[in-house]
Structures are given as C-alpha cells and as structure tokens.
C-alpha cells in the first residue's frame, strides 16, 4: 500500500469530496447515462433479402427528370458514366417523369445503361416542410415504410424491373437535434426493407451522411433489423469513392453495398447533350 503524507492525504480527501455528492458516492456515477439516440428495433423478416446478389462498380449520375433516349445514347458513348439514377415512384418526387415508361427502360437498357431506382415518399418528421411537406408519423413509421415499399414495388413491376432489383428510399437531410425524429426514420426504413424483401426486391437507403445515414449506422450498431441491403450516402466532397467517413464505419455495408453521391447540381455536356446531374460512385446493387 502506498503511504500518503498528511498533506497529500488532505488533498486526496478534498478531491474525493469534490467528486462526490456528499454521501461518498461519485457524482459522475450517480448521473444516469444518456439514452442512446437510436434504440434497437427488430422486425420479423421471414423472407430476407433476395439471393440474387449481383453488384456493379463504376460511375453513375442521377437527374431529376429521366433524360431523353437521345441524351442517353450520346452520354453512353462519350461520358464516363455507366448507370443512371431514376425516380421511379413516390408522392414527393421533385420532377415529373413524362419519359419514364417501360419502353424508355427497355431502350436505355439496350443502349447499355444500368439503373439506380429511387423512391421519394414521406420524409423525416423534423425535416424542413417547405419542399416536401408530407412527413412520417413516428407512431406508424414501420407500417408507413411498408406501405411506401408496396408503392415502389408496383412501379418497379410496371417499368419491367423484376425481383432482385434494388429500390433506394430517398430521405432528404434533416436536423439532428431530435432523437425521436431519427428513430422514426430508422423505423420507417426497417418497415420499408421488410416489405421489399417480402416482395422479392432489395432494399436501398439514400440520405445525407450526416443525418439519415448516420442514424441508420447507429441502428446497425445497436442491432436493429432488417437493415437496408445497401446505402447511398450524400456527401459532396468531390471524392469519387465509397470509403465512407464519420458515422459510416468501415465494417458497415462493406460487401459491395455502397453508393456515394459526391457532387451535386452540375451541368455536363457530352456529344452535344447537356444535362444537370449529381455525380455518384457505385460499388453496390443496381438494376439491369
């Protein structure tokens, strides 16, 4: 046992007194630990993800409105891109889709394009309502996610995308001050995933790396299930990679399960055809 001189003993006693609430119990220990922002939720997923697990790696772009087939033909020949993001369904898509039909998909596929199908429906309860006012109800989030998946499946079938294809749920960025808001987004994504699996489709999830993807990553660490099969994270850092950073741990969605939107709202011209696009790097599931 280490010997303490009287002066040292007095100092040690003062430290102990300051560190306790007067009862000899550490004040730090007496404060309950903060509740985690995202709690573990496990929904029954009897079917699980489809066994069809192809993936594709390369550069992609997404545009608000499906481009003309003339633009697709020109870009396929002259641009670096091999896949295109398309907004197949959802009540809160930002643009109309006059060209997006099964025939358009057939022609684009014949040109050589692969697809990143996107669904834009209900948004986070705490998100800015000025552009997309329809919100997730936290009390019904998993159920609503399942309903949105049903809508997406109907659209995918009508466009000619069979089972095994992915659909990415678009959750726009939202503030991180409300844990209940983040939990609602996670519950919604779990319900979305379960319903897509039941229909034979793969589940994708698109959001900001600093909000939706951060909360989904926290849900993964907590043990929630069923998680989306792939994440498409938005961070406009001009790094054409899928390495992730910050909340997206290297071990999460690590097996060809990522898309990175690394630059947004840029005009590009190839072979005389100009489009306004977001740039993406893909190492994950696409629809052929």
Tell me what you see in this structure:
- The chain has 288 residues and is an alpha/beta fold.
- The protein is built from seven helices and eight strands, in the order H-H-E-H-E-H-E-H-E-H-E-H-E-E-E.
- The protein has helices at residues 6-18, 27-30, 69-78, 102-111, 141-159, 179-199, 212-222, and strands spanning 56-62, 83-89, 114-119, 166-170, 202-208, 230-234, 258-270, 273-284.
- Strands 1-2-3-4-5-6-7-8 form an eight-stranded mixed beta barrel, surrounded by four helices.
- Strand 3 (114-119), helix 5 (141-159) and strand 4 (166-170) form a beta-alpha-beta unit.
- Residues 1-33 have low confidence and may be disordered.
Give a summary of the structure in a few sentences.
With 288 residues, the chain is α/β, with parallel strands linked by helices.
Terminal CA distance reads 72 Å
Order of the strands making up the biggest sheet: 1-2-3-4-5-6-7-8
Strand content: 15-25%
- Characterize the main sheet: 8 strands, mixed, barrel
Number of helices: 7
Write down how many β-strands occur, each being a DSSP E stretch of 2 or more residues. 8
Helix content: 25-40%
Query: Segments where pLDDT lies below 50 for 5+ residues?
Result: 1-33
Rg over CA atoms: 24 Å
Strand-pairing-aware structural class: alpha/beta
Order of helices and strands: HHEHEHEHEHEHEEE
- Tell the overall outline: globular
How would you state the average pLDDT, rounded? 89
């Amino acid at each position: 046992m280490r010997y303490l001189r009287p002066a040292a003993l007095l100092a040690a006693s003062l430290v102990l007194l300051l560190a306790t609430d007067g009862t000899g119990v550490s004040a730090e220990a007496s404060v309950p630990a903060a509740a985690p922002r995202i709690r573990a939720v496990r929904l029954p997923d009897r079917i699980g993800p489809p066994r069809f697990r192809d993936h594709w790696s390369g550069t992609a772009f997404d545009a608000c409105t499906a481009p003309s087939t003339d633009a697709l033909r020109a870009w396929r020949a002259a641009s670096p891109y091999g896949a295109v993001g398309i907004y197949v369904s959802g009540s809160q898509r930002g643009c109309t889709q006059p060209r997006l039909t099964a025939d358009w998909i057939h022609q684009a596929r014949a040109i050589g394009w692969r697809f990143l199908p996107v669904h834009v429906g209900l948004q986070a309860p705490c998100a800015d309502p000025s552009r997309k006012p329809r919100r997730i109800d936290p009390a019904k989030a998993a159920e609503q996610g399942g309903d949105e998946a049903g809508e997406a499946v109907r659209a995918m079938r009508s466009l000619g995308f069979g089972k095994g294809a992915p659909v990415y749920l678009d959750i726009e960025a939202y503030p991180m001050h409300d844990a209940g808001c983040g939990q609602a987004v996670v519950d919604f994504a779990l319900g979305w995933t379960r319903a897509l699996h039941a229909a034979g489709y793969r589940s994708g999830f698109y959001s900001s790396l600093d909000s939706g993807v951060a909360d989904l990553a926290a849900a993964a660490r907590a043990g929630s299930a069923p998680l989306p099969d792939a994440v498409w994270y938005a961070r406009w850092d001009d790094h054409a990679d899928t390495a992730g950073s910050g909340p997206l741990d290297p071990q999460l969605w690590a097996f060809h399960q990522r898309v990175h939107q690394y630059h947004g709202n840029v005009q590009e011209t190839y072979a005389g055809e100009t489009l306004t696009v977001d740039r993406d790097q893909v190492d994950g599931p696409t629809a052929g």
